[in-house]
């Protein structure tokens, strides 16, 4: 029997059969007749002048079609587009292939095009590049020192931008404080490491004069605009297609060198060209995330009330700005107040150039940093004042009656109930029992710790388009400008559409990732797909529904408001024997002979939806055991209570929370992109860059509270929740476990060697 | 990550393999499970012109009971050792160690011979075979050689193999009654290269006095190491908290760790040598006296 209400139920993913059976097409599955393969030669130096490049030996290798250097392409291609530019910031020109100087390990220097990828790779070894090494700087704090090597010779220092702003009366908050608590937190550099690396295929169709670009991207439309700009090519003659995309996590919403070089080569050489990234390239030269250092001063009253904060935030931006590089530190800074009522905050944000690949969005993009900083600070305050960490949060929470709430940094939080989420998490954790157990085990020389994190995040920074068509046979086609790549929105959208029309989910087909078919929009990122894309679809569907009701009303001799759509039919409410099938009404809509007079033929419409910002929130808790003699950490229990507003599909919500949480576990304990002091990347394979595996990820207890957002779907967003809220709960728990050693954790990940050093440094004193 | 092109050779017998290896010398690499070699080739850190694949050589994949010892063919997969009843009965420490190697995919392909001959100090088998006082059989163009495992490790990635020689068998003496062993490894994450590891094997007499002690160290020096002083500390003494602590201290002293920017300083690793030796000996003691899981 057909389900009558899909929204809210854990419908199985429409995407899964084709993925599980390996039937779908990822980028590297694309094979076009006559296709060539490209490989990029990349700098092994963090900073060097390019004295000379000799490609002659590469060109003599059989199967090599062409080799280009930065100098060859400079006039035809680039520079790459940067959209987020803070006032007064320096934005260096960034050419896809380095021209005179390389500024990070992995920066592309030359490209080889060959008949197959193996020849292309072999040819790379035959290119001779003469470098003159220059001093490099990788530590953002060192980069700010006067004598530091300069990343860009033309600038007076390594400061890309500085944003300093006081909100509220900061000095008064600090003079009224009973205590000022100071802390330093470093959030390490992370690699998003999507399971599928990046890749591009380009083909120029001379007949239609269309340049088609397949890219493993999150932002097909934005990419089209960027390529149009950097290639100086009309936007209406570029088609971007995203095939199946194997994860992005923010690393695929950029304008990458390869995404403009490969299309250029396809036009230039008159043959399709493919490039598919290797994992090492991915770790070297696909944008990284986080890499911020915060110095925090908190003005607090003895009762735990937090009055104000002063935060200096140093953000390592890497060598060049990518499209949204400058956004992340500012989002982080402005979200630091979190769930709490503050009188004032002073923010001093410095974006710093270093000889590393740029940082940009990584699942959470600024909000994980914000929440980490405030939640670690709150725990420090609690410890200092001897107040229970749960209680101190309660004393500072914004209250449910205060929404919409304008924060000190001028965000307007839509809805929320932070205490309800925290209480639920504590209940699931069995908080008081865990505390008693902690006490008991300490007597046995075992160190258990409990950590909490109450968090709120901001999403829906984008607008989206939706085109909906009901075809003559009653089948529904939905085109969305969002570009899901694992989240499951084909399912969620189909649920929404099926409910509006009262039809079976299987008669709804969702199309995404083709700029030729779909009106402009932002793609998928920032937890916005369901709310911004879903509301656009809902709007379009309602319009068509209205028209279908009018048609049916004319045929059934009833008023539209007396009709209902369900189970594939349109009924007169009080006379259910009078009805038409959904297919019949669709057929009439396309038949000039039978459509009611005065009505336009067809059932198709396009809507755009500009969302208000939404503020999902939650409360997480972690219980850990720490082994001081070795520094090992074991996760014993994780509780994740989320409030993502209305839920369309609880199973998809669970999946998103689990995935984000796994990445937060990585951030807390395992993952770090590490460079030597000289700028050599130490973690350029997955045997050195440690993503947690099933062994490291414990069972998670998840639950929800539900506070709807003020939009038609009532949804807020879920994609980044786990990644935003969990790392600080774990680190708080580790610090709590080590209370008897009185250690202060400044750094993540909390590796065994790092914790051992902290504990033993304490012992020696 | 694409390997440089190479010629693939698949001999059917040890003799053929040895002949090929002898002829091709340094241009050739022997591949067994490929779990270390293939990644190196993909990173182009290893670029052999010839690959001699042992997987079609008959008679190198076995675990045999031979009187007072167990014979393990070089091509025996880690997973086979992990699941072998013979191993579990006589040298359970080997089953335990096998279960700590990387992940199931690697264990299904990786071989004990390949792992030992790779001579990576972070490899698990070296310490275990040291703790068991094992030997290796080497087959080459001339006479077979048998040597103590200690003599096989010359330096990092440098096995005691002459031109044309292949490690063909591992020989493990069966421990006496009242024996127990344990292999413990500290790794940052499952499947990571070991930060440090310790294999300990004990045999006690009826009074609890130590009659045999074998202690091997993983990732605590240029090769897998034998903690000789730690072994001597225990021999002829009652194994208890005091002697274990002394042995752990000795193992830490004789370890030769180096700084690793990712896994920890030499100081940390030395401290872990102590912690792991202590834990491994306690577990080995419990197992030798009939307890311990």
Automatic annotation (TrEMBL), chain A:
NCBIfam families noted in UniProt: glyceraldDH_alpha
A single GO molecular-function term is: oxidoreductase activity
Which Pfam families does the entry link to? Ald_Xan_dh_C, MoCoBD_1, MoCoBD_2
Q: Which UniProt keywords apply?
A: Molybdenum, Oxidoreductase
Protein origin, superkingdom: Archaea
Provide the species name: Caldiarchaeum subterraneum
Under SUPFAM superfamilies, the record lists:
CO dehydrogenase molybdoprotein N-domain-like, Molybdenum cofactor-binding domain
Where do the Aldehyde oxidase/xanthine dehydrogenase a/b hammerhead domain residues begin and end? 21-135
Cited InterPro entries? Ald_Oxase/Xan_DH_a/b, Ald_Oxase/Xan_DH_a/b_sf, Ald_Oxase/xanthine_DH-like, AldOxase/xan_DH_MoCoBD1, AldOxase/xan_DH_MoCoBD2, AldOxase/xan_DH_Mopterin-bd_sf, Glyceraldehyde_dh-related
Q: Which PANTHER family is this protein grouped with?
A: ALDEHYDE OXIDASE 1-RELATED (PTHR11908:SF132), XANTHINE DEHYDROGENASE (PTHR11908)
The family database entries (SMART domains) matched by this protein are listed as: Ald_Xan_dh_C
- Descriptive protein name: Xanthine dehydrogenase family protein molybdopterin-binding subunit
Automatic annotation (TrEMBL), chain B:
Q: Which organism is it from?
A: Caldiarchaeum subterraneum
- Keywords on record: FAD, Flavoprotein, Oxidoreductase
Q: Sorted alphabetically, which Pfam families does this protein's record hold?
A: CO_deh_flav_C (PF03450), FAD_binding_5 (PF00941)
Q: Which Gene3D superfamilies match?
A: 3.30.465.10, CO dehydrogenase flavoprotein, C-terminal domain, Uridine Diphospho-n-acetylenolpyruvylglucosamine Reductase, domain 2
Query: Which InterPro entries does its entry note?
Result: CO_DH_flav_C (IPR005107), CO_DH_flav_C_dom_sf (IPR036683), Diverse_Substr_Oxidored (IPR051312), FAD-bd_PCMH (IPR016166), FAD-bd_PCMH-like_sf (IPR036318), FAD-bd_PCMH_sub1 (IPR016167), FAD-bd_PCMH_sub2 (IPR016169), Mopterin_DH_FAD-bd (IPR002346)
Q: What protein name applies here?
A: Xanthine dehydrogenase family protein subunit M
Q: Which domain of life is it from?
A: Archaea
Q: Outline the extent of the FAD-binding PCMH-type domain.
A: 1-177
Q: Which GO terms describe its molecular function?
A: FAD binding; oxidoreductase activity
């Amino acid at each position: 029997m057909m389900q009558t209400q899909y929204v809210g139920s854990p419908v199985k993913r429409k995407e899964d059969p084709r993925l599980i059976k390996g039937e779908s097409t990822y980028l590297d599955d694309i094979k076009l007749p006559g296709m060539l393969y490209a490989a990029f030669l990349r700098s092994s130096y963090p900073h060097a002048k390019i004295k000379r490049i000799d490609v002659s030996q590469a060109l003599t290798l059989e199967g090599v079609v062409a080799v280009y250097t930065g100098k060859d392409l400079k006039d035809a291609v680039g520079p790459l587009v940067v959209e987020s530019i803070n006032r007064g910031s320096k934005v260096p020109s960034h050419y896809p292939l380095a021209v005179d100087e390389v500024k990070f390990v992995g920066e592309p220097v030359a490209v080889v095009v060959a008949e197959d990828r193996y020849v292309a790779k072999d040819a790379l070894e035959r290119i001779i590049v003469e470098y003159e090494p220059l001093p490099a700087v990788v530590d953002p704090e060192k980069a700010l020192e006067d004598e530091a090597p300069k990343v860009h010779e033309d600038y007076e220092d390594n400061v890309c931008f500085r944003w300093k702003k006081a909100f509220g009366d900061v000095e008064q908050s600090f003079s009224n404080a009973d205590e000022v608590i100071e802390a330093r937190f470093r959030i390490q550099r992370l690699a998003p490491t999507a399971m599928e690396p990046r890749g591009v295929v380009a083909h120029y169709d001379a007949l239609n004069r269309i340049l088609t670009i397949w890219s493993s991207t999150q932002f097909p439309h934005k990419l089209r605009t960027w390529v149009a700009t950097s290639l100086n090519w009309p936007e209406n003659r570029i088609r971007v297609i995203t095939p199946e995309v194997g994860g992005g996590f923010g690393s695929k919403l950029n304008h990458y060198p390869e995404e403009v070089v490969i299309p250029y080569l396809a036009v230039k050489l008159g043959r399709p060209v493919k490039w598919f990234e290797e994992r090492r390239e991915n770790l070297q030269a696909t944008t990284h995330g986080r890499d911020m250092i915060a110095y925090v001063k908190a003005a607090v009253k003895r009762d735990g009330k937090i009055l104000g904060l002063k935060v200096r935030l140093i953000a390592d931006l890497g060598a060049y700005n990518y499209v949204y590089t400058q956004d992340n530190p500012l989002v982080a800074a402005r979200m630091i107040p979190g769930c709490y009522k503050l009188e004032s905050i002073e923010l001093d944000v410095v974006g710093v150039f270093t000889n590393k690949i740029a940082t940009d969005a990584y699942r959470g993009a600024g909000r994980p940093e914000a929440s980490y900083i405030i939640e670690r600070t709150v725990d420090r305050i609690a410890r200092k004042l001897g107040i229970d960490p749960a209680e101190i949060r309660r004393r500072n929470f914004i209250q449910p009656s205060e929404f919409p709430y304008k924060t000190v940094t001028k965000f307007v939080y839509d809805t929320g109930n932070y205490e309800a989420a925290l209480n639920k998490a504590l209940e699931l954790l069995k908080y008081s029992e865990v505390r008693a157990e902690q006490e008991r085990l300490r007597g046995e020389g075992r160190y258990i710790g409990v950590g909490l994190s109450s968090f709120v995040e901001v999403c829906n920074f984008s607008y989206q388009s939706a085109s909906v068509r009901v075809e003559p046979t009653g089948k529904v086609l939905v085109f969305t400008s969002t570009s899901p790549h694992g989240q499951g929105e084909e399912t969620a959208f189909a649920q929404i559409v099926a409910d509006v029309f009262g039809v079976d989910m299987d008669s709804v087909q969702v199309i995404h990732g083709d700029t030729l078919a779909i009106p402009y929009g932002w793609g998928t990122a920032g937890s916005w797909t369901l709310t911004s894309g879903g509301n656009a679809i809902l709007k379009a569907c309602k319009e068509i529904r209205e028209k279908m009701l009018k048609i049916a009303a004319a045929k059934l001799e009833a008023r539209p408001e007396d009709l209902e759509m369900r189970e594939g039919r349109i009924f007169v409410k009080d006379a259910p024997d009078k009805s038409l099938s959904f297919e019949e009404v669709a057929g009439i809509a396309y038949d000039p002979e039978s459509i009611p007079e005065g009505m336009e033929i067809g059932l198709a419409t396009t809507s755009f939806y500009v969302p208000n910002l939404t503020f999902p929130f939650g409360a997480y808790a972690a219980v850990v055991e720490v082994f001081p003699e070795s520094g090992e950490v074991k996760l014993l229990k994780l509780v994740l209570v989320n409030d993502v507003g209305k839920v369309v599909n609880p199973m998809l919500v669970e999946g998103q929370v689990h995935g984000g949480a796994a990445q937060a576990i990585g951030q807390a304990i395992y993952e770090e992109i590490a460079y030597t002091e000289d700028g050599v990347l130490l973690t350029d394979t997955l045997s050195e860059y440690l993503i947690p595996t099933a062994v490291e990820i414990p069972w998670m207890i998840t639950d929800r509270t539900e506070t709807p957002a003020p939009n038609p779907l009532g949804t807020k967003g879920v994609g980044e929740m786990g990644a935003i809220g969990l790392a600080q709960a774990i680190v708080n728990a580790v610090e709590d476990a080590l209370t008897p050693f009185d250690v202060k954790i400044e750094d993540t990940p909390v590796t065994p060697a790092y914790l051992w050093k902290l504990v033993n440094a304490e012992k020696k004193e | 990550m694409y390997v440089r092109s190479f010629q693939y050779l698949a001999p059917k017998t040890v003799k053929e393999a040895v002949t090929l290896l002898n002829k091709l010398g340094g241009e050739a690499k022997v591949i067994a499970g490929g779990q270390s070699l293939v990644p190196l080739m993909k990173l182009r850190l290893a670029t052999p012109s010839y690959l001699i694949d042992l997987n079609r050589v008959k008679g190198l994949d076995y675990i045999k009971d031979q009187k007072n010892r167990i014979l393990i063919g070089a091509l025996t997969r880690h997973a086979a050792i992990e699941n072998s009843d013979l191993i579990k009965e006589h040298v359970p420490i080997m089953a335990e160690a096998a279960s700590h190697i990387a992940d199931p995919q690697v264990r299904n392909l990786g071989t004990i011979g390949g792992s030992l001959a790779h001579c990576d100090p972070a490899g698990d088998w070296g310490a275990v075979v040291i703790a068991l006082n094992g030997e290796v059989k080497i087959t080459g163009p001339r006479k077979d050689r048998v040597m103590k495992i200690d003599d096989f490790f010359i330096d990092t990635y440098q096995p005691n193999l002459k031109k044309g020689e292949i490690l063909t068998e591992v020989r493990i003496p069966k421990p006496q009654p009242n024996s127990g062993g344990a292999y413990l490894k500290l790794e940052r994450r499952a499947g990571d290269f070991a930060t440090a590891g310790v294999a300990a094997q004990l045999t006690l007499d009826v009074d609890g006095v130590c009659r045999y002690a074998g202690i091997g160290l993983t990732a605590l020096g240029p090769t897998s190491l034998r903690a000789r002083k730690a072994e001597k500390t225990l021999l002829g003494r009652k194994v208890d908290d005091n002697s274990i602590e002394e042995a752990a201290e000795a193992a830490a002293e004789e370890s030769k760790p180096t700084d690793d920017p990712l896994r920890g300083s030499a100081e940390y690793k030395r401290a872990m040598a102590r912690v792991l030796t202590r834990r491994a000996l306690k577990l080995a003691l419990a197992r030798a006296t009939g307890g311990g899981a």
